[in-house]
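Researcher: Going back to the complex we discussed earlier. I've cleaned up the inputs and rechecked each line, so this should be the final set. Can you rerun the prediction on the complete assembly and write out the structure?
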Amino acid sequence: MAERKIRVLIAKPGLDGHDRGAKVIARSLRDAGMEVVYTGIRQTPEQIVNAAIQEDVDVIGLSCLSGAHMTLFPRVMEILREKKAEDITVLGGGIIPHDDIAPLKKEGIREIFQPGTYTEEIIRYIRENVKPKGGGLDRGAGS
Amino acid sequence: MEDKEKLRKELERWEKGTLSRSVSRFPERKPAFETTSHIEIKRLYTPIDEAEQGYLERLGFPGEYPFTRGVHPTMYRGRFWTMRQYSGFATAEETNQRYKYLLQQGQTGLSVAFDLPTQIGYDSDHAMAAGEVGKVGVAIDTLADMETLFDGIPLGRVSTSMTINATAVILLAMYLAVAEKQGVGFKEVRGTIQNDILKEYVARGTHIFPPRPSMRIITDIFAFCKDQIPRWNTISISGYHMREAGCSAVQEVAFTLANAIAYVQAAVDAGLDVDDFAGRLSFFFNCHNNFLEEIAKFRAARRLWARIMKQRFGARKPASSMLRFHTQTAGSTLTLQQPDNNVVRVAFQALAAVLGGTQSLHTNSRDEALALPSEAAVRVALRTQQIIAHESGVADVIDPMAGSYAIEALTDEIEAGAAAYIDRIDAMGGAVKAVESGYMQREIGESAYQYQKSIEEKSSIIVGVNEFTVEEQPFKDTLRIDPEVEKRQRQKLKSVREARDTNRVKEKLEAVKRAAERTDNLVPPIIDAVRSYATVGEISDTLRSVFGSYQERT
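Model: Rerun complete. Updated structure for the full complex:
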């Protein structure tokens, strides 16, 4: 019985259109064998959480380079809690000053990846810290 | 010819003798060397590499077709490039202070950064604006903000560049309305609006409307400006953001000029004479790390554009074929690690831009991998330009790199590579079609991914990131935007809304709507609307109701 793949939603909250990093990460995670959905730019926190639930993902990767992360990331966490979906691991990246990392982690963001991070490091982090849900069933393959 | 034959023989002798003896004992660092555009860099360039066409055809003289050597006859011996630092943050009050500081420090032109809600047509109190107000630029909701932004800055004497695209027509209207209040006539104002919507779909993401109505707004601006504000650059066709998104130097030239062709074609199709508007088109390029490739890139872009304008569009006036451009050093090359290294990167990039003949320049600040620049960091960035201008001596001779076998060969290769891409885009039906089909987006995504891989595999070395690393303290002292800014801005918007004549605003917005539904030029009714203190959001919503919104492909 094949193990279910880790499912990841890469999301761009807010109005920031810089999605080079988000796209590179989406592709790297895919190449590493994960199932990845990319939301596209300019998503509200509500849209992101809805997509995460609908796609039944294990991980949400939030990317923000506009400086709005202190408003948008906690808002995503808040809606996840409201919808009882806080089992989803949330990671963040982008232009995030050092002093913001601790407060974001306090809000429930598990890890923040700053500029210069290798995609390999993110892949390793996800593999070591995230177990795919759904009892090990590979939804594509059947059993 | 005789000389070249002799040279070829001598080169062969050198390769088989001196060179091969050396290489067999001391192998070269890599089996092959290449630029970001995968142009293979030879170990040695000689006159054999010179193109068939002669000097006059390829290079000519400064200020003359094909402008390879520069667009002005004296270049920097006459006047230095405009030192123009892109800046804006928080509210109009804070940004006005920063502008006055920069002008005092010797900056010679203004460059306005707007926040994302302003760029995407949302007022500061819109739900989509939450967290974004005043962050990447200054928040502008109404003419009242614009009056504050330029308070005490004489618009008849400075030139102002505004990075604004989907809402360019609204911000231009506000600028004109402020000038009017200062008693400065439309004919005197000088500046640039970015107004390049095609690259927004490709890379930067601040689009509002679908491509076709967006092209119509741009054509309306060309038509209005040629009669009313003759010293205004109506567009700044930008490769910068596509390069930041990951494309190569050749792709940057190709996609920028392909977009430019689409704008010129749209205006010609709308009935404008090419020589009536082409002289006010301007360009905006990135300056990345590969020093030689970047210098060659600017020269290649100038020559290719001149040929396109003359051959494809039949431009007669020399000014119509002149590629005038602004340059910004490459933000994406700045590292969080060892941020002082960024000062050095920026200096080399800025030098390449000057050697490439830029008309204006923004140098990035050392702290920009983490935040908007602090005042101290932006001063070093500006000083970098001043050192190049006043101390290095490179500005004293025109196009000093010309005639370098390597630079000329690279210039030829970049021109040919970009021309091949443009042919491909032509075959797809032009840039608008290529953007709609996601072609440029895919090409850029592929290059960005390969670049990241090359860093992780260490086939590209980034100093301080994947080599020469040290244990570091977290980088602090970055500029922070006070969360109170958003509240203050919303409060100001509320008071402007309460003080204005609501009926007059409604009436002016109706007029904008009517013009949008017909084919009337949109600029005059939008100027009228901003004078009534209609907001950026209200005018954008009026246009959305007619033009619809663009749905991104993912």
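Model: Worth noting: The interface with chain B takes residues 14-20, 23-24, 27-28, 38-42, 44, 66-72, 75, 95, 97-99, 114-116, 118-120 of chain A (CB under 8 Å).
Researcher: Good, that matches what I expected from the previous run.
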